[in-house]
Design brief:
497 residues, FAD/NAD(P)-binding domain, eight-stranded mixed sheet, globular, FAD, EC 1.1.5.4, tricarboxylic acid cycle, flavoprotein, Probable malate:quinone oxidoreductase
Length: 497
Amino acid sequence: MEFLVPSQTSTESFDVVLIGAGIMSATLGTLINQLEPTWSIGLYENLDKAGLESSSPWNNAGTGHSALCELNYTAAKADGSVDPAKAIGINEQYQISRQFFSWAVENKRVEGNGFINPLPHMSFVIGEDHSKYLKTRYEALKPNTLFDELEITNDLDTINEWTPLVAKGRDQSQKVAASRVVSGTDVDFGRLTADLTNSLGAAGASINFGHKVKNLKRDGAGWELTIKDNASGAVKTVKAKFVFVGAGGGALPLLQKSGIDEIKGFGGFPVSGQFLRCTDETIINQHHAKVYGQASVGAPPMSVPHLDTRFVDGKRSLMFGPYAGFSMNFLKSTGQMDLPLSLRPHNIIPMLAVAKDNMSLTTYLIKEVLKSRAKKDLSLAEYFPEADGSKWELITAGQRVQVIKKDAKKGGVLQFGTEVITSSDGSISGLLGASPGASTATPIMIGLLSRCFPKEFAGGWETKLKDIIPSYGQKLNDNPALYAEVKAATDKTLGLN
């Protein structure tokens, strides 16, 4: 048992406390600071810097996910048809994020536009059936404004022009197909998070790294948090009118400690992963695309294989994966007791129901954990036929905690997405889940603000938001002229022309 050292300092109070220094907290804090500059903000992060957990590019944070190439957002129905609605919705969300990025650059909330780079987004499939599916997907998406740049081919020479590493050395008789959108992007969310957090501190927020939130409880209309300084071991009390729990995998335990009714029935299923990262510059420089394939049977959506160019701290890199695994940690920086300690009487039934109904996922994870390095290299060769495994290093990606929630019919369901949990009085809110995550942080946080601060939202915030998000309240997919205007403006500011 850990004994907390009594605080030697006075109690601090804030209008808003942000738990965790990831992209969600950084985005929410920036929005609140712009909408209500007189509100005091305190941010507490367990680690020593911002953006080191789920927002880190090495931990598989979304790198500009906009459903241009991610096939899991357009799964084929039983009759073979494809519904474009989910992909359109995710792309609409990313357009909001892009406008926020552009505003942040223009208003010097970030240090230049180096966190975002133009990068084609591609889908690549193997086999007759998958090629037919890709064509059906193309036909469903192409008529839409947000996907009007989509191209498709089953010609290997054309694929070689698009992405040489995928085509070279491939069996000419193999049936393949690819689609792409040239105007995709790659986002270094670690860098963006750090910049937004720094600017938040410069604007007057209290930024506290190396501080772990140990507990939180009701304090009248607000909240009282118990926070430990990791360096000194001292513990202090912090009071807040509103709390946002943006702690990634650590959000579930903190929301459970809050005691709010809305968290009852929720559990978490942690999934870890690994990537192969290329160390040979001559290979890295031959690939300039984000290439997504089809997920294996039983694989979770975030395990869709992809061969990615990424820009991390301004340096170009190349990664392939992920190889899914299982760990009971909810974060890379926490321990194996996270999962068992998250069990509660109200979430045991949903979790058992999910275990029963997802045996294929369990089987998949076991196979992935047991997969040898040689088999990992064979998976790489499906997308890069001439790959030399000796030029790739195996790195551990971040932890993802998939949402488990109660269900009236099944008892519990496993949800591959994000879930915002908000108390009935709007005084506390937190985010659970993973994909598409970072890429849609801005619309998710705007939605949170509308739920938690309806009076302020109706009393002027919406007007202010239109200064940040010019298309706010409108669907760009339904308005080609507005989309063209917004895209041209954001491309110019972000250096994507």
